[in-house]
Design brief:
This protein has 90 residues and is mainly α. The protein contains two helices and no strands. The longest helix has 38 residues, at 3-40. The N and C termini lie far apart (69 Å). The model has no long low-confidence stretch (mean pLDDT 85).
Length: 90
């Protein structure tokens, strides 16, 4: 190969090795930091009082309509696991 071409490949190789090394250091230091924080500062579970939760209440006819619609749309294959009310803040 000619001199400029070989020099370009050397620069390319050095640059790729440098980038790989820097990214490896970032990943390794991030993992070490995560392990140290999790070991010495474990997360405490946040307790919410049941008074602050606002559970939606549906009338039996509304619940029956939702169940019937889901069964009709999914041809009996869909099942409802939970229902949540969505607030419209406009």
């Amino acid at each position: 190969m000619s001199d400029p071409t070989s020099q370009a490949f050397v620069i390319l190789l050095v640059g790729m090795i440098t980038i790989f090394s820097i990214l490896a250091l970032v990943v390794i230091s991030g993992n070490v930091l995560i392990r140290l924080v999790n070991r010495y500062f474990p997360a405490t579970p946040v307790r919410t009082s049941p008074v602050l939760r606002k559970e939606p209440t549906f009338s039996p006819s509304t619940l029956a309509a939702i169940v019937a619609t889901v069964e009709w749309v999914t041809a009996g294959k869909g099942h409802i696991t939970s229902i949540q009310a969505v607030e419209n803040n406009k």
